[in-house]
Amino acid sequence: MLICAFLGDILGISMSFSVSDIEKTAQLARLSVTEEDCSFYAGQLNRIFELVEQMSAVDTENTEPMAHPQDIALRLREDIVTEHDQREVFQSVAPATEQGLYLVPKVIE
Amino acid sequence: MDLHTLSLSGLGKLLQTKQVSSVEMTDYFLTRIGNNTDLNAFITLAPELALEQAKSADKRINSGNSSLLTGVPVAYKDLFCTEGVQTSCGSKILSNFISPYNATIVERLQNAGMVMLGKTNMDEFAMGSSNENSYFGAVKNPWNLNRVPGGSSGGSAAAVAARLSPVATGSDTGGSIRQPAAFCGITGIKPSYGRVSRYGMVAFASSLDQAGVFATAAEDAAVVLQNMAGFDPKDSTSIDKPVPDFQLELQQTLSGKTIGLPKEYFSEGLDADIARAIDSAVELFKSFGLNIVEISLPKSELGIPCYYVIAPAEASSNLSRFDGVRYGYRSEHTDDLVDMYRRTRSEGFGDEVKRRIMIGTYVLSAGYYDAYYRKAQRIRRMIAEDFDNAFKQCDFILGPTTPTTAFELNSKVDDPVAMYLNDIYTITANLAGLPGISIPCGSDKKGLPIGLQLIGKYFDESGLLAMAHQFQQHTDFHKQIPTGYQA
Amino acid sequence: MSFEAVIGLEVHVQLQTRSKIFSGSSTAYGAAPNTQASAVDIALPGVLPVMNKEALKMAIKFGLAVNAQINRHSQFARKNYFYPDLPKGYQISQFDLPIVANGHLTIDLDGEEKVIGITRAHLEEDAGKSLHEDFHGMSGIDLNRAGTPLLEIVSEPDLRSAAQAVAYLKKMHTLVRYLEICDGNMQEGSFRCDANISIRPQGSTKLGTRTEIKNVNSFRFVEKAINFEIERQIDLVESGGQVIQETRLYDPDKDETRSMRGKEEAHDYRYFPDPDLPAMIVEQSYIDQIQQTLPELPDKRTKRFVDEFGLSELDAAMITQDRALADYFEGATGCAQGNGKTVANWINGELSAQLNKTDIDAEHIPVSVEQLGTLINRIDDNTISNKIAKTLFQQLWQQPSDITVDELIEQQGLKQITDSGAIEALVDDVIAQHPEQVQQFKDGNAKVIGFFVGKIMKASQGKANPKQVNQLLQQKLS
Questions:
Q1: Which ipTM was obtained for this model?
Q2: Which of B219, C44, C447, C451 allows an S-S link to C39, with CB 3.0 to 4.6 Å?
């Protein structure tokens, strides 16, 4: 994709999201996309990425990435047990439980 | 008595002098909400809990152990966790989620004695600028039912504008308090990042999200914010700094201070009516003795691209916990584990949420991280530096909150980019973590409200509230009630 | 062609904090399912992590102990993947800015030292557990373990054999227990290991394609799994095949590793800095302060035991392997007038045998240091014989008591007979009864002396001083 974008710049054509990009991304995100969705998504995501591409023209070499709005150090808490058992109330909103466990379709190891 | 026309302090005085009980007041607003369901401003009402809270508020008032907020009703955006009450985030995936705990701000306002009327409608997971992305249906703008109220806190804004609740909470990730406040003709403040606890506020984009308040007037917002704000040990991004007395600060001297007008905010694309309204507001501020300078925020136009990498990236990760295992919706037809995840999430999330999860997943994936995410973080710093430089020349930055007034329902749903551009003036304050406020400053030819935005220095909510309050002492835009909701 | 194995280890050490790394839940092992899983641990909507101070302290302790660099600026990052035992859909870990980097550990194998590089050690949270017993075709998820602090220690690929890998692991195991940052319990999963293994032609410097063997939870299995995997890779390459990069699982029942493909899909963890947790900044003064509290570490202690008490390198190393045992040694030596050598013999002989037999750990040795020290003193001053001392040691092991060794000797009348008159009588008796053997001795068979000693000791119920008996016999027989 990076190479594509670079070539795209040179050739003056805009890069585009392929169907396989969409499928791979959907798989990572645990979303299912139908074939129709795919082309619909591809169209919309391409428009959004055209917008995002505006950034590539900016020289950011001497700027550090900013991950947090403020420059603060992580605060640490004391190593004290403050929580008590709330399993019953937490599991009252769970889709499926048994013997205090959350149930899910079989995990294959 | 027309309780809905009163300000929060007006209502508070009635309660303190026992002319009206909290139970009566609560009942009054619940009835009013029931009579105005056409707005679709609420997802959940909690009448029984509200009356119970009202009763104990009355007891507190009788025992003399109360504050100005005791017994006054409030509505919460449906992304604040409220114990025992559905917290849906406007999503199908949490449509059956009863929170087992309270968000810190809910806890604090409850401790002050406020009565929760219910939970307001919103764009799903706060993603949207029109409140059309709700699983529970679109919210309508009380000024014109064919128009959007703005988003994502559209329900809270519409509720306060139609006087269904005297105040409401909201959250602002890219403009989600200020933009709907502008569209609905009310006051909305987004505090500095770190001023208000995020604990119990369902996360959209953690480095941008900040809880705030909707009210008709800035002085009401000040009282509520006073009680919400302050250090919370449960939030590692909460700042341990004393909260000033916002009410006292409303009267601070503004004369001699400087307003910066960013030239980028007054360029093409800005509606002429809005430009005119802002101009006259600037004139009024001038008359208070404030200086006006032109400033530049040269990286402003990069705000939207930068935001649409960072926010979806954080969101894609934040929304991974919605997997149908421990709470929330789970698809009924599942073959295996991966199938359960995919069906649950595909059926549970709406289109805009899925779109942003896709963008976020993509920009973080191997090979693209540096080109998109790290690049966006560098741009983010440049945007923050723009503000640092600007604030060397001025104390407040003033401009329009939005490029247009409220647009028509369904007019932008198929064009995400057009929708995103709505947040062009608000988004940069989130990227920089700065406080912002939107106040009504007029209306356009169609009779729709116009919002004026002020952005302040880091942690200067006091200054913003004072500016807004003193403006409102000389104007009555914030007192306008949409036709149809006056009685 | 001959091949060389290249092995790197990732050790997951559960830090023994009271509460979890990002929540106030207890980390105690063995609670009923999900009773130690708080709102933060089960990732309810809206909850946020707050970092545990003690976990950081333990990570720094470890870093200092392996002479590593402590990164004064480190950062938590999210590692994104879906799994039901991972409630948030991401694990909070560290990625490009770990707390510890560039350390090393020296292993000793058959007298040869080798320095193994430690690339990094980072803090992260443990996941929950999936229970695969059948719940109507479903799996059960227990999140009690979710959020337990882990230190993941990544070695350089410096290890060349399974034996070296085990030596490294054992050294690491000793170290983390010394530092009191991990209980080292491998059955409970407190100390776990993944091994990255590749092979290359002898002499080559290029790394081959590696496989990763997950979660091998005993030293023995680590050795077997690595040996199997090296053989498998060599066979594969020699038969013209290629090693593919994959995760493999060791099956101890069949003693083989097998591919985990199928479950494994292209991983793309999408690491990014966790926006809920600002950068972790550590002051140099804090690091210095922790440095002050570090205990004497095994290597240094071994050296000191050799220098101070004249122990052999081997004896000293065996004792210092376990901090509690080394403490016991020092305690007992203090009570035995500094006679460390004898104490070491006892520890590596009698005491180790008992430890192995009874499955008791060194922290709970039933014989007190005073008791062992006095036993040794009483042998020394001829109050009791070595044999009786051993019997008493057994007694105290089986029936621990506060009684002093002197009281015990008194009570059981075990005091050695040193009165030469009494011994002389015994000697005369025995000589008189065995004229045949006396003749043998006189004929030059010196070994017969042993026969007399045995008889005399028996007659005295072991209490006669053997030295005195010997002297008297020599006198009387010649």
A1: 0.97
A2: C44
Give the residue from chain B lying closest to A49, CA to CA.
B305
Quick one: tokens of C344?
């070491």
Domain B3-257+469-479: which CATH class?
alpha beta
* CB-CB under 8 Å, A65 with B381: yes
Segment B132-168, tens digit of pLDDT: 999 999 999 999 999 999 999 999 999 999 999 999 9
Structural domain containing residue C253: 3-288
Catalytic residue among B22, B77, B171, B299: B77
Tally the domains of chain C.
3
Domains contained in chain A, CATH given:
2-57 (1.10.20)
Same domain, C300 and C273: no
Amino acid occupying residue C216: V
Q: If you average pLDDT over each of B415-419, B458-462, C407-411, which comes out highest?
A: B458-462
Residue C297, CB-side half-sphere exposure with 13 Å CA sphere: 20
Instruction: Tell me the CA distances in angstroms from B356 to A31, B23, B204, B329, one per residue in order.
Output: 12, 43, 10, 20
Using CA atoms in the order B209, B211, B214, B215, what is the torsion angle rounded to 10 degrees?
-150
Q: Is there a single domain that holds both residue C244 and residue C263? A: yes
Active-site residue identified among B176, B197, B300, B316: B176
Question: Could you confirm whether B176 is annotated as catalytic?
Answer: yes
Binding-face residues of C in 71-100 toward B, CB within 8 A? 78, 80, 82, 84, 87-90
- Band the pLDDT of B369: cuts 50, 70, 90: very high
pLDDT digits (tens, 9 = 90+) for C364-412: 999 999 999 999 998 888 888 888 899 999 999 998 888 888 888 888 8
Question: Using one digit for the tens of pLDDT, what is the confidence trace for A23-70?
Answer: 899 999 999 988 777 877 888 888 888 888 889 999 999 999 998 888
What whole-number distance in Å separates Cα of residue C274 and Cα of residue C281? 15
Is B335–A47 a contact, with Cβ atoms under 8 angstroms apart?
A: no
The alpha-carbon gap from C232 to the nearest alpha carbon of chain B, in Å, equals 31
Measure C323 CA to nearest chain A CA, in Å.
Answer: 24
Q: Which residues of C147-171 are buried (b: 16+ CB within 10 A; e: fewer)?
A: bbbbbbbbbbbbbebbebbbbbbeb
Report if residue C409 sits inside a domain: no
Residue C323 and residue C427 in one domain = no
C26 vs A81: CB contact, 8 Å cut-off? yes
Of C35, C36, C130, the CB nearest to A107: C130
Residue B51 has pLDDT above 70, yes or no: yes
> What is residue C264's predicted lDDT score, i.e. its pLDDT?
46
- From the list A101, C130, C142, the residue with the least C-alpha distance to B337 is C130
Interface of A with C in 1-60 (CB under 8 A): 27-28, 30
Annotated domain spans of chain B: 3-257+469-479
Q: Could B323 and C46 be called an inter-chain contact, meaning their C-beta atoms sit closer than 8 Å?
A: no
Give pLDDT tens digits for C252-261: 888 888 888 6
The C-alpha atoms of residue B430 and residue B310 are separated, in whole angstroms, by 11
Whether B152 is catalytic is yes
